[in-house]
Amino acid sequence: MPSSNPKKVVLGMSGGVDSSVAAKLLKEQGYEVLGVTLKVWEEEDEAATSKRWQERGCCKVGIAKHVAELLDISHQVIDTRESFQRGVIDDFIGGYLQGTTPNPCVRCNERVKFGGLFQVAEQLGADYIATGHFARIQHGEEGTPFLARGVDTKKDQSYFLYRIPAKWLPKMLFPVGAMEKCQVWAEAEAMGLPVDELKESQEICFVTQGDYREFLKEHAPQAERPGNFVDAEGRELGQHEGVAFYTPGQRRGLGIATGNRLYVQRVVPDLNLVVVGPPEDLDTKTCQVADLNVFAHEKLLEGQRIDIKFRYSAPPVPATLHWHNEQSMRVTFDRPVRALNPGQSAVFYEGDRVLGGGIIQIPKTSALISPDSRSAKVAPLESVSR
Predict the structure, then answer these.
(1) Which residues are registered as beta bridge partners of 353?
(2) Which long-range contacts (CB under 8 A, 24 or more apart) does 323-329 make?
(3) How close are the terminal C-alpha atoms of the chain, in Å?
(4) Which residues contact 266 (CB under 8 A, 6 or more apart)?
(5) Alpha carbon distance 19, 378 (integer Å)
(6) CA 364, CA 218: separation in Å to the nearest integer?
(7) What is the pLDDT of residues 191-202, one digit of tens each?
(8) What b/e string do you get for 218-238 counting C-beta neighbours within 10 Å, with b at 16 or more?
(9) What CATH number labels 225-281?
(10) In what helix (H) or strand (E) does residue 32 lie, and over which residues does it extend?
(11) Is the separation of the CB atoms in 130 and 11 below 8 Å?
């Protein structure tokens, strides 16, 4: 533990309860803490500033400054809006327009947050960077660090961190990763923070309207491109607002009255179609994963059995992997999973250890339907088997 010659740590301070408690813990452990808030979005407008903290974006500069003053640590705000726009928001909009479901938190960690913190650490000569994520850095038998799930499995955030370069792991700290959330709240209350207002925000930080569809309508008006709902046989069932507003597994907001429960199966941007069907048609046993980031190649061999999380809130599913090339593989689940969304992340685990992950790909299809055909059948998906 640092003492006479304290190690410097650049801590990402969002103004939330987790990073605030992380600052307290690092200070108590003897580190010289250098607080940094990355400004990723526009200034809050007058309507937003009248709201309670939990109703605003994720990065609350005022609280971060208050915590820094309370703990007597340095604090600075760095404007990263341009890189956030390019690496996260443009990716978010483009993903939906292309028929995928992007994960902006994954992209932010990969392209903005951690890279920004490491850049500051290099400039200030810091030894480590730290955040308030519920994750851990563990070490193998040879002392090699690896990313692991947080102790509180309900709050574990390792799913969002799998794209971090392996070379960064030796210089990363997650102070609250070994704690339960209730312990974090208790620490925050002991600090005198307004815990009644510091509720956790579940929405995407830049989607202040509460629904990503409203964000798209404002920032990508080209998303509003009406087309047809069709079933698997190509029969027209109604009109949609634009493929960007629909994701696999969606049931609400379809406005189709057929007497049966219908769910979005997939979208076909090239034909401006949304394919719907019964819930059982959402079940799949395989998917293609590409754009990989791998921590442990030796544990991801051909035919390897692993656990996969394909959604942050979903439990891991046992699966077997089969390599196509260095950046692409097919995974086969032990049991069918429902509503896989292309664009989302599939993260690989061995117990608590994160082995890597990648992006779920759009299933290949040779769709036979066209906007002018009401009866042509939708060709089966080549990379999904039921």
Answers:
(1) 148, 350
(2) 324/288, 326/292, 327/290, 327/291, 327/292, 327/358, 328/288, 328/289, 328/290, 328/292, 328/358, 328/361, 329/288, 329/289, 329/290, 329/292, 329/358
(3) 53
(4) 99, 248, 275, 342, 362, 363, 365, 381
(5) 49
(6) 31
(7) 988 777 666 655
(8) eebeebeeebbbbbbebbbbe
(9) 2.30.30.280
(10) strand 32-39
(11) yes
Which phi and psi (to 5°) does residue 57 adopt? -65, 175
- pLDDT attached to residue 259: 80
Task: Yes or no: say if 29 and 53 are a contact pair by the CB < 8 Å rule.
Answer: no
pLDDT of residue 197: 65
Distances from the Cα of 223 to the Cαs of 81, 220, 240, 243, 264, in angstroms?
23, 6, 11, 7, 17
Separation of CA 165 from chain center: 16
The residue type found at 379 is A
Task: Locate the DSSP E strands across 160-300.
Answer: 172-173, 227-230, 236-240, 263-268, 273-277, 283-294
Confidence of residue 274 (pLDDT cuts 50, 70, 90): very high
Q: Which two tokens stand for residue 53?
A: 């903290």
Overall average pLDDT of the 87-98 stretch: 96
CA 244, 245, 251, 255 torsion-angle sign: negative
CATH of domain 8-190: 3.40.50.620
Residue 34 has pLDDT above 90, yes or no: yes
**Which position has the token pair 């990969």?**
110
pLDDT at position 60 is: 74
- Determine contact, residues 246/97, Cβ cutoff 8 Å: no
Going from N- to C-terminal start, the domains of the chain cover: 8-190, 225-281, 283-360
Determine contact, residues 267/364, Cβ cutoff 8 Å: no
Output the pLDDT for position 205.
79
Active site residues: 108, 205
Q: How many helices (H) and strands (E) does the chain have?
A: 9, 17
Amino acid at 103: N
CATH architecture of the domain 283-360 equals: Beta Barrel (2.40)
Q: How does DSSP assign 64-133, residue by residue?
A: HHHHHHHHT-EEEEEE-HHHHIIIIIHHHHHHHHTT----HHHHHIIIIIHHHHHHHHHHHT-SEEE---
